Amino acid sequence: MDFDSLYSERALKMRSSEIRELLELSQKPGVISFAGGLPNPNAFPAEEIREIVNRILTEEGGKALQYGPTAGLREFREELVRYVQKQGIEASLENVFVTVGSQQALDIVGRVFIDEGDVILVGLPTYLGAINAFLAYGAKLVGVPLDQNGIKVDILEEKIKELKQKGEKIKIIYTVPTFQNPAGVELSEERRKRMLELAEEHDLLIVEDEPYEKLRFEGKALKSIKSYDSKGHVIYMATFSKILSPGFRLAYVVAEKELARKMIIAKQSMDLCTPTFTQLIAYYYIKNGYMEKHIPKIVEMYRRKRDIMLNALEEYFPPGCKWTKPRGGMFLWAELPKHISTIEMFKDAINEKVAYVHGKAFHVDGSGENTMRLNFTNPADELVEEGIRRLASVIKRRL
Ligand code: PMP
Ligand code: G9A
To answer: pTM of the predicted model, to two decimals?
Structure first.
C-alpha cells in the first residue's frame, strides 16, 4: 500500500520536532540532558495537589470528571481574569479561554489565521514548537534577528515594508518577549511598545507567548505587550506548564472577544474541552493562594541552577565560545566557533552522555549551525556542572 499517496497536503508539511524526538534519547539512564524544556521534578507541588485532589473528588467529583465548556470552566476563567488583571491586562470573561497547553493555542492560531503562504514574522531563533505548528498550516516564516533586548524592531519594520512591497500577505508577529525560548533574552519595554505600534500601523496581530515571565530571577518585571493593547491586536497566551505542571496540559489565552470566539469554535472540533479535572485543581491552587507562595520557591531553585551553569561555562568552556546570561526562564543560548556544527557534534555528546538541542532547529532561515540551546532547570544541581564539563570536553575535541 502506498500510504504516501493518502496523506493530505497538510500532513506532508508537518515536521517532526527535534525536542520531542530527543526527549526519549535524553531520558536514557546516565545521560545528563540540557535538551528538553522540562521543569525540575522537585518543583512540582505534589503535597498541595494531593490535598486539593482529595477534596475535589470528595466534594465535586461529578464536575471534575465530567465534560466542561470548550472555553474552560467558568470559575477558572473568572479566576484567570482576576489573575491577568493583576498584571495590568484589561480583560473580562469573554476575552479569556483555556487550552490544552499553549501548544494547542499556537495550533489554534495557525488554524484560524493562516492560509497557505501567509507570512508570520518570528525571531531568529524562535521556539521550535511554534515553527512546526505554523508550518503545518502552510505559513511562510520570516526570521528577524535578536539581540540581548529581543527582536530587533528596526529590522522587523524593514522586513514588514519589504514584504508588503513584494505583495506578501503578512498576518502575525510571533514573539516570546520574556526569557525567550530558546535564547533566554528579554524584549525591552521600548521594543514592546514599538512592536505594538508596528502591528497597529500595518494591521497585524501579535502573538505574545509568555510561558516564562513569572520565572524572573532578577530585574524589574516588564509589562506585557497585551497590557498596552487598546485595539485588540495582541493575542496573549500563558501556560501553567512551567509554574505548576506540564502534565496538567493547561494554558490560557487572552484575546479580543471576536477573535477569542473564533478560536474557541476552532477548539470545539479539536478536543471539545480542556480536561476539567486539571482545570479545577489549578483553580483551587490559585484561589487558595498556593501559586503566589510557590513561584518564589521555583525562582530560587532555578536561579541557583542558572548560576551553577554560568559558573561551569566560565570554568570549562574553551575560548571562542559565547553564551547568554538570562535573567530568568529555563534556557541559555551558546554560540561555538563558526566551524563547529552542533548537529555533527551531537553524536559525540551522546557518547559522552550529555544532550542539548542544536541551534539550527530554532532558525527558520537554516542558520545557527554553530549554536545550541541549554536547559538548566531539569538536571540536579551537581549534574548541571558535570554536564557542562562533559560538553566542554566534546567541544574541545572538535576545536
Ligand atoms: N511556547 C513556548 C515558548 C514554550 O517554550 C512552550 C513549551 N516549551 C510552549 C509554548 C508549549 O507549552 P505547553 O504546551 O506545555 O503550555
Ligand atoms: O517537551 C516539550 O516539547 C516542551 C518543551 C519545549 C522546549 O523544550 O522548548
So the answer is: 0.97
